[in-house]
User: Fold this.
Amino acid sequence: MTVEQDGSRRVLAGVDAAARRLGLRPGMSAAHAQVLIPGLHLAPADAAADRAALVRLGLWCQRYAPLVALDPPDGLLIDVTGAVHLLGGEAPLLDDLAHRLVRVGISARLALADTVGCARAVARFGEGGIVPPGRTAQALADLPVAALGLGCEAVPALQDVGIGRVGQLMDKPRAALRLRFGAEVLFRLDRALGHEPEPLAALAAPEVPQVALRFAEPVGARETLERVVADLCARLVPELERRGLEARRLDLVFVRVDRLDQAIRIGTAKPSRDGAHLARLLTERLSLIDPGFGIEEALLCAAKVEPLAERQGSHLAERPQALDLAALVDTLVVRLGAARVYRLAPVESDLPERVMRRVPALADPLGVVWPADLPRPVRLLAPPEPVTAVAEIPDAPPLFFVWRDIRHRIVRADGPERILGEWWVADAEAELTRDYYRVETEAGERFWLFRDGPMERNGRWWLHGLGEA
Amino acid sequence: MPPPRSSDTPILAELRRLTGSAGREAVSDIYPTLPFGISGLDAALPGGGLGRGTLHQIHEGGPRGRYAATAVLFAGGILARLDGPVLWCLHSRDLFAPALARVGLHPDRVVYCETWRDAEVLPAMEEGLRHRGLAGVVGELTRIGLTPSRRLQLAAEGSGVTALVVHRLCAGEAAEPEPTAARTRWRVSPAPSEGPDRRLSRPRWRLDLQRCRGGAPGSWIVEACDAQGRLAVPAILADRPAAPIRRRAAAG
Assistant:
């Protein structure tokens, strides 16, 4: 039971269920209440604490959908568009929410409707529940006009002329309403019916560092957007520094005049709080943004952060190289995609197709190399190309081979180097045998040939590589 | 308008000299060159070696220009002898990294990026060339125009990173030289190796320095890069006067 000051009177602000049963209502004067219930315990209302609690509850509600907005003093709006299927439909979602709220001792009335205005009106003035799609007008018709969220003058003025229900308001000619009660009444009505958009100021989780810029005039020019990006990054960096964080992923959202938001996302290979570097990465992606009729607002948030690891600077010149490489890799990743920038690391395998694996470009040095005593070609043909080759005797290197209709006479050769299939990888490889020969032609060109079986078992010849180290 | 004073002239001349020398002419003085360790080859190059912080073109001689296998090894050998990470812009997926490790380019040093078209290779190379501390940037290209080559050359000058363009010819295309801003243009082709029997010995390459700004073109037969990326003079050619005699003795 809380009490607040309203002018010179002390009135009840918050009333719990027990007090409600005793006939107490918010707005009743404190003196009146104390006369009705002797020994009534009153606590002063704390608006700031109420709001903080509402914000906490709002953040918790982000479990249902990411877009949650406050509806002070005691309401929350959740935009569940596209998130309903996660709990199996609208009704299960409301049930789940109601159960969880009851369990922590919060009494709430829930409503789900097509528009923000309708959901709010049904929750606050109606019975709550689900308004089926397209039934907004019917749901609103029986509610009092105050449900539209009108200012305090408009409701008595409407009641003076006998308009008490929203349905009556909908039947009246619009021009007359506008003349008599101003534009606000129609505007609220249109919002509740969905004829006007009602943007929600999304509640941002305080742990996500974010900065925003709002523009007096819509912007759209590429140069302006580049400046905006640089500006946002310059503001985000102190924010990250204050919290001791570094960014791994940034989301940049441009809010367009027509509410079709445009967004770009970048990731960094290493955590970064170098504003210029982040701005460069975002600028690379700016070409994906279609400014349309103009952009009103730009929001930059560090969607993924890591705690800042303090790095010991060195007075020697070799340290900055590693940082430099991270910047380069980030730029290339943004431009080409993460799968197309990598390092190659050795894998212990006999099959040439399997001796390399990709590792992230900035992975720690592995310090391993392929065996130095096995000469290998510099270009590997994948798959190997069939050639016709003739050898004098079994197991001897061929005398010549024909590849793509050109005959190459072999002057020098080395081999065979026998490579067996890895039966522990695939059953089909148990039979695989390859005899590799390194050969040099008359012109000095080197090739890597293999025969996929012994000659007496009709082994065929293949060209697997060119050039040799 | 103030009358021109005679004392202005030497100052202006001095300023012009200073601003002029801050341009491109001084590049070879800023970054030390990388000698090949072969006296004839180094003598043909200005500064006694391959210029760092400049653009070099490497063509593959012989019929296998599409694969540019020898050219890649030559580039790998150069980078093996420089310090720092390497950015390698691939043109297709057929590069076999163990071969690069065998000419001294450790796999930990090389960052590959898959740039399938020339239009992607050039910006990626330029990006790499702007990052100080890289040993070099390799781009596998089919062709490079004059303007892109100028951009690469300027970026390389700014950072001191060496740029190597390995040309991969399309099928049926001739290696006609196009004007570029590259400092040198090399043609590397395989050459028959020598040895006592039919076994393989160290491969040999024919190096043609086709164009070299401030140097002299020339041709050399060299032994291919060893495990540290060093070329060598073939033993017989190194000791030319003695060679014919020894061969005759061997034949007899």
User: Anything to note?
Assistant: Chain A has a mean pLDDT of 86. Chain A touches chain B through 54 residues (CB under 8 Å). The first strand of chain A starts at residue 2 and ends at 6.
